[in-house]
Design brief:
By secondary structure, this protein is α+β, with helices and mostly antiparallel strands. The chain has a domain at about 100-195: Mutm (Fpg) Protein, Chain: A, domain 2. About 15% of the residues lie in helices and about 30% in strands. It has one helix spanning about 5-30, and strands at about 95, 100-110, 115-120, 125-130, 135-140, 145-150, 155-160, 165-175, 185, 190-195. The strands form two sheets. It has a six-stranded antiparallel sheet, with no helix packed on it. β7 and β8 (about 165-175) form a beta hairpin. The protein is elongated.
Length: about 200
């Protein structure tokens, strides 16, 4: 038996495919936040002149025959937009004066948990016991120390420079505030101490 393609059936199937693809395209655009912007870019904000300057004197308008007068231009009533300040770098948490490029760091654990720490590129991972302290001597700056509680708890770290040049005391205490929890301490070559 020979069957012939029905043109109406073929046309309807093509119409269905096109409709489905159009529907998918429109829903994708809708989920993406609409079509891309069209037209001219936004005009730059007008700058305002300082109040100390006198306004420019108006020139008398000359009219030409059969010319229509131009509508007066409105002045913007919005205050001048200020430029956003550039991004600021974080301030150091403390500052230590390295002695010939070397610092001594005293780690003080005031928690009831073990703290794992490592001087990156200098030591293997070590453990600082509960309610204990240790001095790390002869660390060349810049130096980074990573740390974490072995029980997974949060740590509040307080670095403090002392009167002794090149000596930094770092106290670890328990906290429940996630915003103060850090995992590393970096002493830069010039002595800035940053927590990350």
């Amino acid at each position: 038996m020979i069957s012939h393609n029905n043109p109406l059936k073929t046309n309807l199937s093509w119409l269905g495919v096109l409709s489905a693809s159009l529907l998918v395209s429109l829903s994708t655009i809708a989920f993406a936040g609409g079509p891309p912007p069209q037209g001219k870019p936004a005009a730059a904000p007008a700058t305002t002149e300082p109040a100390s300057q006198e306004p420019a004197k108006a020139q008398p308008a000359t009219t030409q025959p059969n010319a229509t007068p131009a509508a007066p231009q409105a002045t913007p009533q919005t205050p001048a937009q200020t430029m956003a300040a550039p991004a600021r770098f974080p301030l150091p948490s403390a500052r230590v004066e390295p002695s010939e490029g070397v610092v001594t760091i005293k780690l003080v654990n005031t928690t009831n948990a073990l703290i794992s720490y490592q001087v990156v590129g200098d030591t293997q991972p070590r453990t600082l016991g509960e309610q204990s302290e240790i001095q790390l001597k002869g660390l060349k700056t810049p130096v980074t120390i990573t740390y974490q509680r072995e029980d997974g708890g949060l740590l509040m770290v307080r670095p403090q420079a002392t009167a002794t040049p090149g000596f930094l005391q770092v106290s670890f205490s328990a906290t429940t505030d996630l915003s103060v929890d850090t995992k590393s301490l970096n002493v830069q070559a010039e002595g800035g101490v940053f927590l990350n």
